[in-house]
Specification:
Number of strands: 14
Structural class: alpha/beta
Radius of gyration: 22 Å
Order of helices and strands: HEHEHHEHEHEEHEHHHHHHHHEEEHEEEE
Low-confidence stretches: none
Number of helices: 16
Strand order of the largest sheet: 7-12-13-11-10-9-8
Mean pLDDT: 91
């Protein structure tokens, strides 16, 4: 999994004293970090963790000694290391000193600790995109679309393969395995979330059964702007126990800190009309396989329920688009206004360029519906106050060809898309 490595080695470490790599468990943050590092400190080493924690309190700078860049894996086990790294970066006044990797955001970072601004750059490492796992050839480049490039590709990926990819997810250990062990990786990750990770993140004991129900309810809201209160009520349906709002927020906060859920913020463009733009986030998991594991469904179940498969497929596309947007120095948003006009994904680059993307399973009528939505949104954008969209794309599960329509709308499959 080398996709992130150039950004770490060639960009971030060359411009900052330290790099913080964050993301879910099982995405091989330490694996990629070790490729760049010249020395390694593994804070979760079973026979040394307590000694490392004590040393981090008594003499943290001793733990930072070693050839640079020095990787400190699972640094959050001893949060005081954050301030030690910040101090040492200042003292050495040299770029490329440390790589920090972790699977959770300690409460101390949010509350009392210095942010590290100007010293520590942050990189979010997600599960693998289809391009990284070689399930997409990447013939349709998102970067080329921003440059007005021509697209052309053929793709014969079957819907059965897409259903499998949704349930397998982008977990590095799952890629290349036979179907049964590949599908088990997401189930194993889900079990770890509800059994230990959701409590371990801030040492607050949380109920396993309620965590399962919350994730199941969250999975039923993928691609929607459902309120947390709606999710809470769905959790309590057919159950006699209680789950108040403050407890819900605590669970949601924990799931965010361990990178299980990652909602999409609303895009707020300049539009000609006085249409009110909805600002509620759209609900997503960091990987679609977490949702299928939460619901207890597999590829065959998705093929029997294409409506559910459509929502899971949207989550997969959002995951890949986020990864490609990061690579292009951009961010992902969604759009919805009071009149019901929606756009599933907006990729907005730092230079102000943006692309509009509708996500569909496929089929002529669905592609046509997506294209009409894109044209309606483009027509209300005030291009006197902001740029016109660089491109408009209908992204499909099944699209035998990637092409540009006469109306300027591009059509492509997710298994032909790359950065």
């Amino acid at each position: 999994m080398d996709f992130y490595l150039p950004r770490i080695a060639d960009t971030l470490l060359e411009a900052k004293g330290a790099v913080l790599i964050q993301g879910p468990q099982m995405v091989w943050k330490d694996h990629d970090g070790k490729k760049t590092a010249n020395s390694v400190l593994e804070m979760d080493r079973p026979d040394m963790t307590k000694q490392y924690q004590d040393m981090a309190e008594l003499s943290p700078l001793r733990l930072l000694e070693g050839d640079t860049p020095r990787l400190i894996d699972e640094w959050q086990i001893a949060p005081n290391l954050w301030n030690a790294v910040r101090y040492e970066v200042d003292r050495r006044d040299t770029f490329g000193q440390f790589i920090l990797t972790g699977s959770a955001v300690p409460a101390e970072i949010d509350a009392s600790m210095h942010t590290g601004t100007g010293r520590i750059s942050r990189l979010y490492m997600r599960t693998m995109s289809l391009y990284e796992s070689k399930d997409s050839r990447g013939e349709v480049s998102l970067g080329d679309l921003f440059k007005g490039g021509h697209i052309s590709a053929e793709d014969d990926t079957r819907l059965e393969k897409i259903a499998f990819l949704l349930c397998r997810g982008g977990w590095p250990k799952a890629v290349g395995l036979d179907e049964r062990p590949a599908l088990f990786q997401a189930v194993d990750y889900f079990d770890a979330i509800v059994s230990t990770d959701i409590s371990r993140v801030d040492s607050t004991r949380r109920d396993k059964k309620k965590a399962k129900r919350l994730l199941r309810s969250y999975a039923r809201t993928i691609g929607t702007q459902s309120s947390l209160e709606t999710i809470r009520r769905d959790m309590l349906a057919n159950h006699s126990d209680t789950f108040d709002a403050s407890t819900l927020y605590s669970y949601i906060d924990a799931l965010t800190k361990i990178f299980v859920i990652e909602d999409a913020p609303a895009w707020n463009p300049n539009v000609r009309s006085k249409t009110a733009i909805r600002t509620t986030d759209t609900r997503y998991f960091t990987d679609p396989s977490i949702a299928t594991a939460a619901l207890g469904i597999g590829p065959a179940d998705l093929l029997d329920d294409l409506k559910t498969m459509g929502f899971m497929f949207e989550n997969l596309c959002i995951r890949d688009l986020r990864i490609y947007a990061d690579y292009l120095d951009g961010a992902l948003y969604h759009y919805r206004d009071k009149n019901g006009l929606e756009c599933d994904a907006v990729i907005h680059l730092r230079n102000g360029s943006y692309g509009l993307i509708e996500i569909k399973l496929g089929g002529d009528s669905a592609i046509e519906e997506g294209a009409e939505n894109l044209k309606r949104l483009a027509s209300i954008i005030d291009t006197k106050k902001m740029k016109a969209p660089s491109f408009m794309l209908v992204l499909c599960a099944r699209a035998p060809f990637a092409y540009k329509r006469k109306d300027g709308i591009h059509v492509a499959s997710i298994t032909s898309l790359g950065p």
